[in-house]
Amino acid sequence: AVPDIEELEVSPFAFEERNGILFIGSFRHPPNCEAAVYLLREILPLVDPALLARHPLRIVGTDLPEEIIALARKSPHVEIVGWVPSINPYLERARISVLPLRSGAGTKRKFIQSAMIGTPAVATTIAAEGLHLVHGIDTLIADEPVAFARSIEQLLVNEHTWSRLSGNARKVVLRSHGRSFGRERLLQALSPAAVVEAQPIVVQPAEVSDPDQVQWTCNICGAAHLNR
């Protein structure tokens, strides 16, 4: 398998220079809508309001549905950003990223990007799928609302945990999704094709009723073709 390849520069902003909680995702993708509703309805109300006042949740992504906009407007600590030309500036400045996905498959590119930039995340097991990130060492994984909310609070205020997860997650995804690894896997995938000798196409003319047409047989596929 050739993995998603993403290699971004680490954020120049330190822990104390960062602010807020970031949720990113295209809302054309149903699992992102489901995750945003879960975050707004079940997780965010459990997070300390004083902490949210200092670190509001920002929702970034295209095609926000009305349901999510309406839920977001009920909280004074949620900012609707919507579509942006690049998510990198938001990932660089956010204190943490959240990925409360409850469905979906495969590696999540937004998690790879967050880890590459050095923004630690709180995620569900599904969001961390396939990334080989270990709970408590590279990221915080929580599948229940209370545990997810407590993990958000911990990562927002604990600089030691934040720094450790930020550095560790980047190292893990660089090994499995960086350019060098991706190039190596791509070359491995292509190597069998490189040793196959090229077969020249041999044209064998044949008589046809129309003098403006030529019939020929391809020695690769064995089929007869008729060209004007």
Question: If you had to describe this structure to a student in words, what would you say it looks like?
Answer:
The chain contains 8 helices and 8 strands, in the order βααβαβαβαββαααββ. The chain is of the alpha/beta class and 228 residues long. It has a 6-stranded parallel beta sheet with strand order 3-2-1-4-5-6, with helices on both faces. The longest helix is centred in the last third of the chain and has 19 residues, at 159-177. The radius of gyration is 25 Å and the shape is elongated. The model has no long low-confidence stretch (mean pLDDT 88).
The SS-based structural class is alpha/beta
Gross morphology is elongated
Strand order, largest beta sheet: 3-2-1-4-5-6
**Which segments are poorly predicted (pLDDT under 50) over 5 or more consecutive residues?**
none
- Biggest sheet details: 6 strands, parallel
List the helices and strands in order.
EHHEHEHEHEEHHHEE
List how many beta strands DSSP finds. Answer: 8
Tell me the β content: 5-15%
**Considering DSSP H and I runs of 4 or more, what fraction of the residues is helical?**
25-40%
Number of helices: 8
Question: What labels would you give this structure?
Answer:
228 residues, alpha/beta, 6-stranded parallel beta sheet, two-stranded antiparallel ribbon, 8 helices, elongated
Short description:
The protein is of the alpha/beta class and 228 residues long. 40% of the residues lie in helices and 13% in strands.
